Amino acid sequence: AREAKMPAAQGKIFIDRFNQRYPQIFAYLEQMKQQAIAQGYVETILGRRRYFNFTSEKLRRWQGKNLAEINLERLKGLGAYDAGLLRAAANSPIQGSSADIIKVAMVKLHQILQHYQARLLLQVHDELVFEVPPEEWEELQPKIREAMESAVELTVPLMVDVHAGLNWMEAK
C-alpha cells in the first residue's frame, strides 16, 4: 500500500480481491513459505537453492515436518527478521527462476555472438542490452529472440520483446 501510495485498508482490499481471483498464486506463495520452514530452503526452476536460517522457535520447531502440517495462520506475530525471511522464501523461487532463465539465455547468446561483431553489454533484471552494428541487426534480431524465448522449456511460452535504438532509452 505504501509503495502504491494508498491507504493500508485499500491495499488490503486489493490483495484480498487479487487472492479471490487468483487463489492458486497465493497457494503457491504459501507453499513456498511452508517449504522454507520445513526444509530450510526453496528452489528455483533449475534447482538452485536459497537457504533460510529462522531464529524464531515458533518456526524452527516445524523444521523437518510435513508441509501439510504447517499452518501459517498459527504463525502470526513473528519478529520482523523471520517475517522478512518468509516473504523472501515466497519470492525467491520466482525471482531466482527469472535469473536462471536469463543466465541460460546469456550462455546461448554468447555462442551466437561469437560469429558477429555485436556484443552483449549489460543485463538489467530481465533485460539484455546489446551493441549491434546496423548491418548485423536484421540477421541477429530473430536469433536473439529465439535464444531468449527457448532458454528454458516451460509449459507456457516465454515471450520476448526486442527493440533497437541508438541508445538504451531510445530502444525502450
Provide a concise account of the structure shown.
This protein is mostly helical and 172 residues long. The chain has helices spanning 8-21, 23-39, 57-60, 80-113, 134-149, 168-171, and strands at residues 41-43, 49-51, 119-124, 127-131. It has 6 helices and 4 strands; from the N terminus they run H-H-E-E-H-H-E-E-H-H.
CATH classification class of the largest domain: Mainly Alpha
Biggest beta-sheet profile:
2 strands, antiparallel
The percent range for helix content is: 40-55%
In spatial order, strands of the major sheet run 1-2
What's the number of domains? 2
Which oligomerization state do the chains in this entry correspond to? Answer: single chain
- Taken as a percent bin, the fraction of beta residues is 5-15%
Number of helices: 6
Word description of this protein:
It is a single chain. The chain has 172 residues and is mainly α. The protein folds into two domains: 8-94, Orthogonal Bundle (DNA polymerase, domain 1); 98-171, Alpha-Beta Plaits. It has helices at 8-21, 23-39, 57-60, 80-113, 134-149, 168-171, and strands spanning 41-43, 49-51, 119-124, 127-131. Strands 1-2 form a two-stranded antiparallel ribbon. The protein has a two-stranded antiparallel sheet with strand order 3-4. The radius of gyration is 21 Å and the shape is elongated.
